[in-house]
């Protein structure tokens, strides 16, 4: 086990730049004060004109003040300590979720929209994962890996949040390409593997999708499909660059285009991939049912590195800063009568006290 230190907010450490700035300002002020004093009297006369003046006391107060500022900045940056576990063994499967991001996924027959409802269901499923490795693929006319296979579920949620219908420039529904990309992106090991396709199924290259599903099944990769949409279909909203709805998509004749769920297509893909098909509804997307079936697959043990929760250490720095500020306040700039007997800050023989 290895002890690990880190700052939760390292950007606050840039505040330490203020310390050399304050030192420069302090030196300039002291030089200006000495120059101004010399206009009225010699340095030797200072102890007679200002008997309680203590230059070293002022320097000491300033050093204490700088230390307080430094400790306060370290406190804001919040030093944390934790322990890195060298090896943690987990059991799970490898899972790629392929999300359709074509414009038809903006249809609102599934509230708030087909795509947004899909993301909500995936996000909830990620919170239930334990030991499974997850990857995300987005597809329209082309397919792209949005997130490579990982056990970093926080990263998965972050990448998922950025998924939208602008993620892929060209439109279409290349389910076959998405399956092939996921199949080729899996690690070459003995872990059980599955692909979940979330789409409305409007694919104009049906045979390519079927061939990809059969090829995956031959490799032992299960294909699951979720149909996003209702049988009656819905128009496709169009949005401007500011995200404001401008109306519905129309064909060349000016008729509103209605996108409908191709349920038969998605069911046949799941059957070819030895998986399961579920049709989403406004109350339930169906991802939980699919994950329950996926969980029955044989799970393989893997070794990963994880960190324990970090413990905050900022209180020590803030406490030290408060103590130093109190000391700075309690030390007066001039010498009190009882302090002059001890010459704490002055050299012996340096003027009458």
Description of the structure:
The protein is α/β, with parallel strands linked by helices and 353 residues long. It folds into 2 domains: 2-81 and 311-341, no CATH class; 94-298, Rossmann fold (3-Layer(aba) Sandwich). The chain has helices at 18-38, 46-49, 55-77, 114-128, 153-161, 175-185, 206-218, 263-272, 287-294, 314-330; strands at 2-7, 79-92, 94-100, 133-139, 143-150, 193-199, 221-227, 234-235, 237-239, 245-248, 258-259, 277-279, 300-307, 311-312. A hairpin with a 5-residue loop joins strand 9 (237-239) and strand 10. Helix 3 (55-77) runs antiparallel to helix 10 (314-330), helix 6 runs parallel beside helix 7 (206-218) and helix 7 runs parallel beside helix 8. Mean pLDDT is 83; it is low at 347-353.
H/E topology pattern: EHHHEEHEEHHEHEEEEEHEHEEH
Radius of gyration: 34 Å
Structural class: alpha/beta
Give the overall form.
Answer: elongated
Name the CATH class of the largest domain. Answer: Alpha Beta
Protein topology:
Elements: E1 2-7, H1 18-38, H2 46-49, H3 55-77, E2 79-92, E3 94-100, H4 114-128, E4 133-139, E5 143-150, H5 153-161, H6 175-185, E6 193-199, H7 206-218, E7 221-227, E8 234-235, E9 237-239, E10 245-248, E11 258-259, H8 263-272, E12 277-279, H9 287-294, E13 300-307, E14 311-312, H10 314-330
Parallel strand pairs: 3-4, 3-6, 6-7, 7-12
Antiparallel strand pairs: 1-2, 2-13, 2-14, 4-5, 8-11, 9-10
């Amino acid at each position: 086990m290895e002890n690990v230190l880190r700052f939760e907010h390292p950007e606050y450490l840039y505040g330490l730049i203020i310390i050399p700035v304050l030192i420069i300002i302090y030196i300039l002020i002291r030089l200006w004060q000495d120059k101004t004093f010399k206009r009225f009297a010699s340095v030797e006369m200072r102890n007679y004109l200002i008997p309680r003046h203590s230059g070293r006391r002022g320097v000491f107060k300033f050093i204490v003040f700088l230390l307080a500022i430094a400790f306060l900045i370290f406190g804001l940056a919040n030093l944390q300590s934790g322990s890195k576990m060298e090896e943690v063994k987990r059991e799970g499967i490898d899972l790629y979720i392929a999300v359709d991001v074509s414009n038809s996924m903006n249809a609102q027959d599934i509230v708030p929209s087909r795509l947004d409802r899909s993301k909500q269901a995936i996000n909830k499923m990620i919170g239930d994962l334990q030991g499974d490795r997850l990857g995300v693929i987005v597809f329209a006319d082309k397919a792209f890996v949005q997130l490579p296979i990982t056990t970093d579920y926080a990263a998965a949620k972050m990448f998922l949040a950025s998924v939208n219908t602008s993620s892929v420039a060209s439109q279409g529904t290349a389910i076959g390409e998405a399956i092939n990309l996921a199949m080729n992106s899996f690690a070459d090991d003995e872990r059980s593997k599955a692909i979940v396709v979330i789409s409305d199924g409007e694919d104009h290259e049906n045979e390519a999708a079927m061939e990809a599903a059969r090829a995956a099944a031959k490799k032992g990769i299960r294909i699951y499909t979720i149909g996003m949409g209702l049988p009656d279909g819905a128009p496709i909203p169009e949005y401007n660059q500011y995200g404001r709805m401008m109306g519905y998509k129309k064909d060349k004749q000016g008729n509103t285009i209605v996108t409908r769920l191709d349920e038969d297509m998605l069911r046949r893909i799941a059957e070819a991939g030895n998986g399961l098909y579920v049709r989403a509804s406004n109350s339930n997307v169906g991802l939980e049912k699919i994950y329950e079936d996926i969980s029955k697959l044989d799970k393989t043990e893997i070794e990963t590195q994880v960190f324990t929760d970090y413990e905050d250490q900022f209180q020590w720095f803030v406490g030290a800063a408060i103590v130093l500020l109190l000391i700075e306040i309690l030390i007066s700039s001039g010498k009190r009568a009882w302090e002059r007997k001890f010459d704490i800050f002055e050299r012996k023989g340096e003027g009458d006290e």
